[in-house]
Design brief:
alpha/beta; eight-stranded mixed sheet; five-stranded parallel sheet; 15 helices; 17 strands; globular
Amino acid sequence: MNNVKIQPVLVGGDINCYSVARAYHEAYGVKSIAFGKIRIGATNHSKIIDYREGTTIEDEEAFLKRLLDLADEEAEEGKVFIIHGCKDEYAEFIIDNKEILSTKYIVPYIDKELKDKLIEKDSFYEICEEYNLSYPKTHVFNKGDEVVDFGFNYPVILKASDSVTFFQHEFAGMKKAYVVQNADEFKQITDEIYSHGYEKSMIVQDFIPGDDSHMRVLTCYSDQNGKVKMMCLGHVLLEEHTPKGIGNHAAIITEYDEEVMTKFKNFLESINYTGFSNFDIKYDTRDNTYKVFEINLRQGRSNYYVTGSGNNIAKYVVEDRVENKELELKIQKEPFFWRVIPRHVVYKFVKNKDLVNKCKQLVSEGKEETSFGYKYDLKGNLKRSWYIFLYSVNQIRKFNKYCK
């Protein structure tokens, strides 16, 4: 590393992007370059990010050229460029263009062939069957299908098989996922979705009972040889409840579950996965099993729960892909409390008071962090500090409005 200068290039501008930039700055003291369409609060006025606005993914050829040109413009002896996508569409773009991007960047991702099998939920569930990963009872619904008996009762969960394509056809009242109470409501919602241009399948799933605290998130890093080297399981305490934010984690405590972790480790190594993977999982009290909803082919939006708990995500990439170290497997066992909302919101809205007490204990032990609470970035930075204050106030408002 003596003559190597790390240059992270991040595609995106949300809290995911900021958390990755923070990991790189904490580990290596470097400023990340980030690309996005417009400036948004999560990455604005930051001392650890050089944000380049005005770049969109709609013109993929131009976007690719911009990334390649950047590497040429910023090139200097010993500089190594590492690229990360911070939303699904960006990660998929990077994977689809991995071969050409690899001429300028370290690209810690799987290949397109495997991506195509994993991104659409119906094909992902077929792979789950093959490797004995439990998932909710599922029915694949296509445009023009009759509303039939799905093999499980209402209420059901309805969501797009391809979420990237789904959000390219935005409409008023659109939701990331719908809880549907009956057949009439199901027809009304699917008619609305397909009338706005989305053509792919919809996933209908058995509704697993339980509040946010039944959710789990698992983040893993697999090295360039397809071996899992880091696993961090999070017990979700609260998710956002705004229509488009449903499923975004707001508070997490890390926990250890050897059986769950072993099962997913075997899965990832069996399919020769490389890079970061992020699984959404829910505990089903009806049969005491953990059921997986999807895999994200990148670090998750809440990735600072991983870095904060002692597993700096930047170091895994650099040590594996730049230094070519043989990494030891690190499985997070000690509990750690992460949040992106004020503490009192967690204490108020988490229904399981044992979990609330656990949060308070971890706070008292200094085992707590929030993604935006980077002292280096906030010190003397009034604009950044003001944004974080307003962000927190807005989160209070949103939870009081949407979380019942």
